[in-house]
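User: Fold this; tokens only.

Assistant: Input:
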Amino acid sequence: MKTRELILAGLLAAIIAVMAPWSLPLPFVPITLQTLIIPIVASIANTKISWAAIVVYLLLGIVGLPVFAGGASGLAVMFGPTGGYLWGMLVFPLIISSLLAQQRNLATLIGANLLAAIIQLAIGAGWLVLASKGMDWQTGLTVGMLAFIVPAIIKVALVTMVTVMIARSMKLPLQ
């Protein structure tokens, strides 16, 4: 990566790390700002930069900085019941940034964000079932995915609005 790309990835990782710990706690999986800020990053930066920013963010959490939902951190979180949602965040740049690189318009922005959100939720819910010994698939999909569809749609609307506002003031994607 070029110096400019490294700096952008680092700055975006720092923004993710500051925003992500904020969450609304729920019984099984919290509603976090991670799934708001990470799609914004993927929507405004190219695939390489947004991927690097998310990887750096996850590494910061793995090494112990309190950057995950609720200020959590460590390998236990990455491999615990909610770890699949964190691993699933790696799909955001692969889907959103990649699709927007092909065609940058409002429909692609909304569609890519919806697709990425659904896939990330599916990965998280599947992981939740597998990591929570004894949880059946119906319960896992209900509490780990279906319960978050409406918040995901709201977040997609917010991501779209923020991305459009950012696009008015600078050329996207950041590269």
